[in-house]
Amino acid sequence: MFEALAAETAGHVAEHAGEHAAGGFFSHAESWVLVAFVIVIGFIAVKFGAPAVRALDARADGIRAKLDEARTLREEAQSLLAEYEQKHKDALRTADEIVEHAHNEAERLRKKALDDLEESIARRERQATERIAQAEAQAIREVRARMVDVAVAAAERLIAERLDDRAQATLVDAAIEELPRRLH
């Protein structure tokens, strides 16, 4: 089978070799189509190649410019992001400081209120002690006054019972004589 195929292929090669030898490459229509195609492609390349290359270069430059702009915008966005992240951190730090200050201030106010309360209690205790002392002094004065009144009443009764009218008159006269000396 391979031998038959080889013989047939050899026959075709010999036939084409004969044709090429007789008329050459340009004796076939396919050869002229290939030459015309190459000429048309060459003409198109010469006529439209430079503008096409320029258009492609312009498009590439436009794409490059857009990429550069996008890169610049990305860098600006990253810069803004970093700036806002720093501002966020600063704001959090400031908020923490404010909270810490509020806690410290609350603690200071609590201590001051406690101190004020203790001082107020001590002051009220002193006032209550003073009032008690005043009340005791007043009670002692009232008891003494009452004792004087009771003693005077008892003395009057004793004098009235034991002294007669003449002795009473002698005592009154002596008290009157002594009065100017006691007043001055």
Distance between the termini: 178 Å
Order of helical and strand elements: HHH
Name the poorly predicted regions.
none
Which structural class is indicated by helix and strand composition? mainly alpha
- Structure summary, number of beta strands: 0
Please tell me how large the radius of gyration is: 69 Å
Strand content: under 5%
User: Biggest sheet, open or closed, and with what strands and sense?
Assistant: none
Number of structural units classed as domains: 1
Number of helices in the DSSP assignment? 3
Structural summary, described in words:
The chain has one domain. It has three helices and no strands. It has helices at about 1-25, 30-160, 165-184. It is rod-shaped, with a radius of gyration of 69 Å.
In summary, what is this structure?
By secondary structure, the chain is mainly alpha-helical. The chain is built from 3 helices and no strands. It holds the Pfam family ATP-synt_B.
Which characteristics define this entry?
single chain, 184 residues, mainly alpha, 3 helices, 95% helix, proton-transporting ATPase activity, rotational mechanism, transport, transmembrane, small GTPase binding, ATP_synth_b/b'su_bac/chlpt
Element layout with pairings:
Blueprint: H1 2-23, H2 29-162, H3 165-183
